[in-house]
Amino acid sequence: DNNYLIAFFGYSSVDQEKIGEFLYNLKRYRLFLEKVKEYVDAIWDNINDIADPNLREAAKNKISQYKQYLEKNLKNIENHEYEISKFAKEIVQNNNNPAYKDYFRDKIFDFINDISSSISNTDHLLFQLKNTVFSEFPIPIVKPYQEVAIKTAPKVIAEGIKMLIEREKARNPDWYKDFDKYLSYINIEESYPGAPATRPDIWKRLLNNIREEVKKVIEKYMEQYPDFKNEIEKKYGSVDEFVKERIGATLDVGHIKMFEKYGYDKEDILKWVEEIKPEIRHLHVHESQAGEDTHLPLGMGWDDVIASELEKLRDILENKKVTIVHEPGGFYVHQFFKMYGNEYYNLLSGAGPYDINGNIPNHFATMLPYGGAQVIPEYIQYTRYSPYSVSIFSQLPMDLGGTSKRQETFSGEKVD
Fold first, then answer.
1. Are 318 and 355 part of one and the same domain?
2. Which of 20, 40, 151, 378 is the residue whose CA sits 20 to 30 A from 296?
3. Above 80 in pLDDT, residue 26?
4. Cα angle at 290 between 286 and 295, to 5 degrees?
5. Are 244 and 286 within one domain?
6. In this predicted structure, what is the pLDDT of residue 313?
7. Neighbouring C-alpha atoms within 13 Å toward the C-beta of 368
8. Residue after which a domain boundary falls, among 298, 327, 356
9. Model-level pTM greater than 0.85?
């Protein structure tokens, strides 16, 4: 866990005894890099099996870069292990020397800057590798991951629906009446440009695939349980209407604006908003700038694209039940420190147990790196604005409008 390693850097800066734990985890990181190198070497050994000559040459260039990076990175990490081991011995000998404590803190900063770079580059390498799916056939076939995602994700979601129904059947005699309480709305959000289903044409195909897979599950239970069939038809008219209403899109107006850095302009973005509008059930609103996910509070941006998006959506906001989350917390959590030159976040940032995004500079999130001491004050708490009251979505501490640690959903119900 990269965040785990970074957290021990932070602890080492204020507690010298933590450097031993850091060394142990640095060794684990090195072993992890060795496994990644084995994987990249295996791809290299079979790269000539790619039939297309252009693709083969492009893959050779890219994998060659990865091999060189990993070899260099492993040597650097081994050197760091050696240097920090020597450093740990010096700590024991000079523990009570005030001047040495200042030296210690500066040295830790040097280590963290070097190894943070390694972690970031490795993250990027793994991100690139996971976006290419190699088959297990003798001649590897490269598949577009967008196509893989929109076919496999609906099956996973449908399996989850089946598991929910089976759980309710086992504990609730009225499961067939209460299905619309425990079968939650499924609103698929577009992520950053390039991620699966971020363009509306592919996004709508994903939604339709999810509806078809969920429909198969619901129809199976309708055939087996007439009472369930009657309830579906009484409340929704048909299973088609059920999946149409319960499965839709979450539009993040800032995410879709990030396509600017790939050459798309305001008119392209507004056209896409219009295209996905019939599917929208939920909105995330904030302002993004310079093609990045800056999460500025509404009104803080310097152009009118976000305002134009919201104007384009005015009719569904007025006439339909569309839920909205304002997401300024990403600015305060991830951008504020940059504006004011804060270095401290990088040392005292930890891996929150619910941090599904893997964000490092969560200096507003309570730091709980697997049993370590809390450094961030307890009054800074998670908000209730995400479905699981964790460090995503609004991300605001109590001081800026967050509420409590109570685990609640948007409706206010407790999380089961």
1. no
2. 378
3. no
4. 20
5. yes
6. 92
7. 12
8. 327
9. no
Per-residue model confidence as pLDDT tens digits over 295-333? 888 888 777 899 999 999 988 888 767 888 888 766 765
**303 token code pair:** 């152009």
Query: How many degrees, rounded to 5, is the angle at CA 75 between CA 70 and CA 79?
Result: 145
- Name residues whose C-beta falls within 8 Å of residue 234's C-beta, 6 or more positions apart in sequence: none
If one counts every other C-beta atom within 10 angstroms of the C-beta of residue 165, the result is 21
253-274: b or e for each residue (b if 16 or more CB lie within 10 Å)?
bbbbbbbbeeebeeeebbebbe
Strands 292-296 and 132-134: unpaired
**Both structure tokens of 55:** 């693709």
pLDDT tens, residue by residue, 167-206: 899 988 999 998 888 888 899 998 888 888 888 899 999 9
Distance CA 268, CA 193 (A): 14
Radius of gyration of the chain from its Cα atoms, rounded to whole angstroms: 25
Whether 216 and 320 map to the same domain: the answer is yes
Instruction: Put the strands of the sheet holding 247-252 in their side by side order.
Output: 186-189, 247-252, 280-285, 323-326
- Reading the block at residue 200, the tokens are 């509306």
Determine the structural domain holding residue 354 and report its residue range: 341-416
Residue 225, classified by CB atoms within 10 Å of its CB into exposed (0-12), middle (13-18) or buried (19+), is: middle
